[in-house]
Amino acid sequence: MRHDMASDKTVPVAVRVLDGSGNVCADLTPNIKRALSELQPGEILEVVSDDLVARVSVPAWSRLTGNEIVETIEEPDHRTRFFIKHK
Amino acid sequence: MLINCSYGKEDPERATLPAIVANVAATADQEVVLFLTVEGVRLATKGYADDIQKEGFKPLKEVLSSFVSNGGQIWACAACTTPRGITEDDMIEGARIMTATNLVEYVVDGAVTLF
Question: What is the distance in angstroms between the CA of the first residue and the CA of the last residue of chain A?
Fold first, then answer.
């Protein structure tokens, strides 16, 4: 875990950050799948999205695939940061 | 159940029939999602369905209202609302913007689909 200055929260340490800004919903979860496949089991991928509907689609993808969202930070302007653990 | 509608007022009959089936299901105490795509997403926006009525059918606005009051959910596909500039603020009561992933999850969880 580490202290995240932007959110003033303690967040998991991500080995990679996927910037999904500009991704429409149908592109984001496939991109998450691709990025996560390059990590080892147990490693954390941070996903950043500026699409408000990511707050429903990414949790649904997590439930479907079993890759747990260990932390979610909702920021202003529809931006969300998801910390996803590779199962 | 998950029932799809991809038509708006350009085809009142195709816009209305899925909602009628969905309402029949909801009033039969079934859990139902009316999943709107393409021009159908406009049906979930305030005021759009007000003047849609195919001869021989109830006004679509009335059908949708009955559907929601009987527990039905209206999902407007985000891939279709975004390019049309439609946001959550435009949604009628009982409607929300959802995604393909939510659709997949609903089907995987056992929903019967009518497309």
Answer: 18
